[in-house]
Design a protein that fits this description.
Pfam families: HGSNAT_cat
Shape: globular
Organism: Perkinsus chesapeaki
Structural class: mainly alpha
Order of helices and strands: HHHHHHHHHHEEHH
Protein name: Heparan-alpha-glucosaminide N-acetyltransferase catalytic domain-containing protein
Radius of gyration: 21 Å
Helix content: 55-70%
Number of domains: 1
Distance between the termini: 19 Å
Largest sheet: 2 strands, antiparallel
Keywords: Membrane, Transmembrane, Transmembrane helix
InterPro entries: HGSNAT_cat
């Protein structure tokens, strides 16, 4: 790999990124041991309760009531997926910082209205199918070995399949949003929750837009990831009561996007900006998440990729990332951006 404008070779930059992410995952895993154990025990208690009575996730509050400070059970697989997508985002932003400070080359832009050829996603899927099997095998020996495999795999993926990773990560986030909305409104639409979530996300989106106007007015963020999450969180709500209709909606939206590109109501995708997210295409993945919730997918608690073995999602750091996704999303760039900037100055 050739040296870039900063004088650091791409391979050195990738090693720094991979080691940084490995250290971050290992540190959070170690710091969250007690929290993950508590949620794991809460889930096991919940499973024992529903084996003897009809108890819904979210309504569960009686089991272990005498125990103090024991958390309510959560949907393990949903937290895991949310954390997995967040790990992609954090790594993506770390490498974006390296690209911005000329320590890695920028990838060529793509037409965000039409996306990438299907074959690109096939390569991406095969790559991660093999990678996750290796991570799983590593986890059976030690979770830290798993992270030592996972972080470099994601780093190299973002280097070689930049746009595939970005688009796939966003789709995963949107599916999690759909499952989360279906969970919240499982017994009927809770309008207070709708207003609360929309207010939080809308306020955060407004802050991001204002800050971008102040610091990067030539590339201000008019409709980024948080804006898209805010809008789609509202549009998804009616479908939470109609999971089969949501599945049809997913198929229709994806078919339309593949055939015609962006819909007429889509936000402009070609304006200069640091971040823009097509809402219509991603709404389809939210609707898919609603349907997946109706099939019980978020309640998966374990995975078995090798016969005779089993791993609890709550034993991984990804569930911790998922539970604290908003905080990590807001904080990580405040740490990485100045750190990479200082590194670029040292190598100027």
């Amino acid at each position: 790999m050739a040296a870039n404008e900063s004088g650091i070779s791409d391979s050195v930059s990738l090693v720094i990124c991979g080691c940084t992410m490995t250290a971050s995952l290992c540190l959070v895993h170690w710091l969250s041991r007690k929290e993950r154990a508590a949620y794991k025990h809460a889930w096991i208690d919940y499973q024992q309760a529903i084996s003897s009575q009809d108890t819904e996730l979210g309504d569960f509050a009686e089991v272990g009531k005498k125990e103090e400070r024991r958390p309510k059970p959560r949907a393990p697989f949903l937290d895991f997926l949310r954390g997995l997508s967040l790990s992609f985002i954090v790594t993506f932003h770390l490498m974006w910082n390296f690209r911005e400070f000329h320590m890695l080359p920028h990838s060529p832009p793509i037409d965000k209205a039409r996306g990438l050829p299907i074959l690109n996603y096939v390569y991406f899927t095969v790559y991660f199918a093999v990678a996750f099997l290796l991570c799983y095998a590593g986890f059976l020996y030690s979770p830290y070995l798993c992270y030592a495999i996972y972080a470099p795999v994601v780093t190299y993926c973002l280097y070689t399949m930049w746009w595939e990773a970005q688009i796939s990560g966003v789709c995963l986030i949107m599916m999690c949003l759909g499952m989360s909305q279906a969970l919240v409104h499982r017994n009927g639409i809770v309008w207070r929750e709708v207003v609360t979530r929309a207010t939080k996300l809308g306020s955060l989106a407004a802050v991001i837009t204002i800050l971008s106007l102040i610091f990067v007015p030539q590339q201000w963020i008019y409709f980024g990831a948080i804006h898209c999450l805010c809008l789609n969180s509202i549009l998804t709500v009616p479908f939470t009561q109609m999971p089969k209709v949501a599945l049809v909606g997913f198929i229709v939206i994806q078919s339309y996007s593949m055939a015609f590109g962006s819909c007429p109501l889509e936000v402009p995708l070609d304006w200069p900006t640091l971040d823009v997210m097509p809402w219509f295409h991603n709404l389809g993945y939210c609707l898919l998440g609603v349907w997946l919730y109706s099939r019980g997918v978020p309640k998966l608690a374990t995975v078995s990729l090798i016969p005779g073995t089993r791993v609890y999602f709550e034993d991984t750091v990804m569930t911790t990332f998922g539970r604290h996704s908003l905080v990590i999303y807001l904080v990580h760039q405040a740490i990485f951006f100045p750190a990479v900037y200082l590194l670029s100055l040292l190598n100027a």
